[in-house]
């Protein structure tokens, strides 16, 4: 069957007919995750159980790991202890830990009770590692080989114990004291002579992480060194687990989502957007809105002080939005580019002067173009009557141009100044935050608008006071 | 040697002493990419050449691929034809294509001239696939196995031809007509009996892409199905290449950087931030700033029309920034969350009503909290004298509260209304863009601020006209 043809009705029909062969064939032709997505919509736990009992036992653990926590819970409630034991025995420890995290306490207890002591210890340890560390995403099923082994002995060992491991593509070579001394890739084993020693073909410049290393750093190393598995060491430098590349792709996606949320003034969500409750979303949105409201006091004070200018020359008000937005937008461009560049480790706070110098030149070019355009655009707004300016009434020719040009220059110069200022600040903030050990994504964007608003408004009123003798 | 101790001086010293052994040892203990990063800073092409001539030939092609285009070019200019031939012969075709893209025309010609015909054809084809498609990132070095083979024949074939392949972890099974009929993982070969048939152990529900498929979709499939390699088919459904997981991590990073840039109103950069020239950056920043400036005309018109209100009740001006920023920020929160969720395919435009209903409820909660806070905050600003409001002079007790409370309510209600409106629009825009086949990241954020500014200002002046009888 093609993926496109497969849907809930077909699955329900197979289940209701108890068509064992059709179900087995389905599992042959459609990817597990696609079946799981459809099965997620089945309400009756007994129907889910039928799937479990029918398909091949090698498949069920992986299939189970793709179901949503709600469906998993439903299933566990109808499982016999024997069903549960089989599931636990065939699951990887990191999957068990992930799944237990979402279960209610009484089910966790029941599951841990029927789990053998060794697995239970491993799962408990995984559950106890701090979230978002290498320890919390690592798995404990991997192949260790002795450094005295030959290639053929290593292959024999992999054939024997490899099925339980999450990967056999990277294997770990230890000495008699169980210190990690090298890694050996499966393809290198295949390409080598059977009698060669592991010590001759193993990689010795391997990269390791500590259990407490932040998962984002682990992801950086994976990308940089093109790894497919990485050893995790404890404080005593002993091998305690491995991180595999499929977990890393999830980490990258998660970290990116967090960075994006932070830059948009949302505290990072614990769950995906669609799984987050209305309350959870509101709770993540409110704090920064309130902080920004309070920080907005600066701009309010400036407008309060210069309200006299607005009363005297009301046309000034019309350009407040483009000046504040223009400054904010151009600064935000820089902040986002610099923050992303920091996240990708293309730059570090050491590049401070280099980046500032770059943005200063960029901002000069941008402000020249945008400023010139703004000058023409304001004249156009006046000329076409889109905006009404009382002082222009009755004027024409040069005297019209002189009066309209005065306001247009004021707007253009203020905008150009705001762009230069905000691009420079937009570079300084994330670099400064990073240097101070703070998260550039959190600090930079919200602070930027606040600072830029105040500066743009001050510049605007200061210049207009000079030009129009307003004070 | 530890990575931390390694630096440019050490490398220069080794080169100047022509210490062949020390260099070889370096390549044993430090990752290639780390050495390449230091070597990038060497100016003298002859010194670079010394590294190339000294280290093991298996290592040079990969090492070369990690160098910057500038250093690669420097090296190619001092290479003899024989050096070049060796390099090309040991490089993967996708690496050759990547490297040729950055070389000046005369060098490209020289390189293609000394490349054997077969490789040249492959490289030319790769260079011709449209950028950002599966074809442009695929490699042509992979292992195909016949569907009539046994496990032991397959392993023998892999041992023979696998060294040339970019991966042997996923191998491709074809029938006598060269149609792809299955994939077989190296570990499954290792775990199977030598006499078993490939057809018994191969995976038949494999996922494929077409050469013209966008790389972002390829990345989505890799994530969804936890792949480490994926077959690429041409229009005739024949296997023409494979994409491997290490290329996919780069794709994910690149797509994310593009999305972030777009959401910050920057056209996507062709290069990384740090490699982009000042002019290139300015060119990417200017267009959206000008578009936003033009779109800002809406807010300007509103302020122009209601300038009388500002003259009559100047205190209104003080709250313009927090109303516009508050509306923009809260809408941007929603836009970024929804756009990201669309990019991760957690939601599709079909979830329109579901998402709008969710955001409506979120916005009601957020607006209630932030509105209430704003009410108190404005009273605080008046009470402490942070903001001066002429009408309050001489008032105290209830009459003070009645007058100050009137402005505070006006600000609070406008802000609450702006939040509800902007969060709803913030959800509609990316979903609508996606449904219309446009890029949600490009369309949503810039349009949002423009629309929200106008709405927030209209609401503000409309309400204040009612409350204070301004018109």
The CATH architecture name of the largest domain in chain A reads Orthogonal Bundle
Q: Indicate the percent of residues in helices of chain A.
A: 55-70%
**Shape type of chain A:** elongated
Beta-strand share of residues of chain A? 5-15%
CATH superfamily of the largest domain in chain A: SLC41 divalent cation transporters, integral membrane domain
Largest sheet report of chain A: 3 strands, mixed
Q: What order do the helices and strands of chain A follow?
A: HHHHHHHHHHHEHEEHHEHEEHHHHHHHHH
What is the terminal separation of chain A in angstroms? 80 Å
* Number of structural domains of chain A: 3
Identify the biggest protein-protein contact and residues per side.
A-B, 113 and 113 residues
In total, how many beta strands of chain A? 6
Arrangement of strands in the largest sheet of chain A: 1-2-3
Unreliable runs of chain A, pLDDT <50, ≥5 residues? Answer: none
- In DSSP terms (H or I, runs of 4 or more residues), the helix count of chain A works out at 24
The level 1 CATH classification of the largest domain in chain A is: Mainly Alpha
Radius of gyration of chain A using CA atoms only: 31 Å
The whole-number mean of residue pLDDT values of chain A reads 87
Classification by helices and strands of chain A = mainly alpha
CATH topology tier name of the largest domain in chain A:
Tetracycline Repressor, domain 2
Oligomer: homodimer
